Amino acid sequence: MNQHDAANDDKPPPTTHRFTVGLTGGIGSGKTTVANMFAERGAAVIDTDAIAHQLTAANGIAIAPIIAEFGSAFIDASGAMDRAKMRAHVFSDASAKQRLESILHPLIRAETANAAERAEGAYVIFVVPLLIESGNWTQRIKRTLVVDCDEQVQLRRVMQRNALSESQVRAIMATQATRQQRLQAADDVIVNNSEPAALLPQVAQLHALYEAMSRSL
Q: How far apart are CA 19 and CA 52, in angstroms?
């Protein structure tokens, strides 16, 4: 199962009184790297992708309902969901995708809400891979931050990281919002076409902005 699908919970947690930012971007854009930089500066980062991964790991609370719905063939030797096998299954069967989402989305929503309640920091960043596609997250956040990169950079990164062919990466990209759609929805943009060091001043500038905006609430 592609965690970008699993984490697309279209019913976000209830609005809190905290200043909230939704961080998104296409596959391979560098969302995790950017989120970690904000966390290092004191932001509370809640990654829906990581939550989805925890739920479907060995002994995760999603494993039992996944076995009940799909059978043990979709569980690997470690006891975790076999993500590659599930990804292939849901890409070829829309009803299977809906059934998996009906298991994962309520769990992701509950875990995200719990994490937001416990979060410490001047403001909260929700990392949501398909934030633009879901349509509903924008009602729950104060700012939308897009991590952007050129398409060729995106392709190269994902091909190297995931050992996928160009056609496989393009197939994943085709299920996501276009680069133009993300940029049109953005309040803020971080450009990530080169080395991580180039991200530091961009993150520092936005961190200062978000801290100032959080104090004005």
A: 24
- pLDDT, tens digit (0-9, with 9 covering 90-100), for 16-31: 568 999 999 999 999 9
DSSP designation for 81 = B
Does domain 3-210 correspond to CATH entry 3.40.570.10? no
61-88 per-residue burial string, b: 16 or more CB within 10 A, e: under 16: ebbebbeeebeeebbeeeebbbbeebbe
Cα three-residue angle 56-114-54, rounded to 5 degrees: 15
Query: What are residue 126's DSSP bridge partners?
Result: 22, 46
pLDDT in tens, 99-110: 998 999 889 888
Structure tokens at 162: 């995931």
Cα separation values, 205 from 9, 105, 126, Å:
29, 33, 18
pTM of the model: 0.85
